[in-house]
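Q: I have 262 residues here and want to know how they pack in 3D. Can you give me a structure?
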Amino acid sequence: MKISYTVAMLAISCGIMFQSCCSTCPTALVPPFTDPEAPDNTLTKAEIKDGWAMLWDGKTTEGWQKATMAPFPASGWTIENGVLSVDKGNGGESQNGGDIITTRMYRNFILSVDFMLTPGANSGIKYFVNPAVNEAKNASAIGCEFQILDDELHPDAKLGVKGNRKLGSLYDLIPAPEVKPLNPMGEWNNAVVIVNGNHVEHWLNGTKLLEYDRNNQMFNALVAYSKYRNWINFGNFEEGYILLQDHGDQVSYKNIKIKELK
């Protein structure tokens, strides 16, 4: 069924409405979920009892691979002092070490990731990634994306529709609020993605930025008028890999953990 431009614009408007009221919307799952005083890259006894697991151990590449399903990149990513960093490159997508993904797929989950930007940097946390539908092996793998971006200095912030390429947005689909609780450059921030069936939420530093439902006409309308319109079943897979993006800029990650939901 062909999706009209009117439906697409309505979908974008609904996306704006979601994000404009989202910080006060009730939810049964409210970040932060972990103890900020706990050592980095570890789980407390309470977290373990609650079903959390580390996605990265803070020391090795275990559990991660290149997005092309090859072994973890030999260069382009650095592990040092409990921090996983994309090395500075030429600013191109997946042109240095390349994107990395988990070694298994996930379906329903709460994903919590601490990240730190450098001036002018671009990266992203993607989910529902399916490398089998990626056309170019030297390009970024495709999936729903929690945008990680320096909104002030990176040109991508000025592209897209109504700011849907700025930090915290569902990249190229639904914008995050203009005013958001972002810590100053050089400090750590916490991104959370909640996926429960077809319902998805983006959180930043304990505040909900946006929420949406996929596998429906409204979501498909957004996709139809985005850069993803030609990708098979974009955002509607039942499960997928989780990805950290190499966009040629230095961005650091730690405390990458996940709680799978039944």
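Q: Anything worth noting?
A: The domain at 5-260 is CATH 2.60.120.560 (Jelly Rolls). The first helix runs from residue 5 to 21.
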